[in-house]
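Hi P.,

Sorry for the delay on this. The queue was packed all week, but I finally got your sequence through. Input first:
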Amino acid sequence: MFERSSEELAINKLLILYVLNKMEIPLTNSQITQVIMENEFVNYFSLQQFISELTDSRFIKIVKEDGKDYYSLTQKSIETLEYFISRIPDDTKEKIDLYVMNNKENILKETQIKSNFSKVGNNEFIVNLKVIENQTELINIDLNVPSNKQAKLICDNWKKNAPDIYGEIIQLLINK
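Then the structure:
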């Protein structure tokens, strides 16, 4: 079995903390995995073990939202990262910084703009639309629509245009 030094294990855990810090928002396990795996820093199984160990030792906490688990930094991890950040190789930090710069907007949309719908009766669907910022709901709308097709269309349009729609709603409420 391939053994890693304790230094390498620590750096890999710091890497996860660095990703969460750079993103500045809680991330799902799959989002963390995507960042790490796309940059080929750690294999999948080791990554899952590191996330579990960081959670168990309270370096990252789990926030449950809409049935999903999101991982975020604790004060302990922020202090640790500040102290040990120099141990992460500069080229690795640069790769993460570049990845975050190129992908943060899409990840933000994924975690802050939510839409779903459920059937509540014959020809009756409830669509729920949300915008969340810093774990605070900015807007939460429930709409009753008559068809599955309309519900899907509303959800798709919300995902594509939520910031604009939210802005227009606020303007309408302020100006009327």
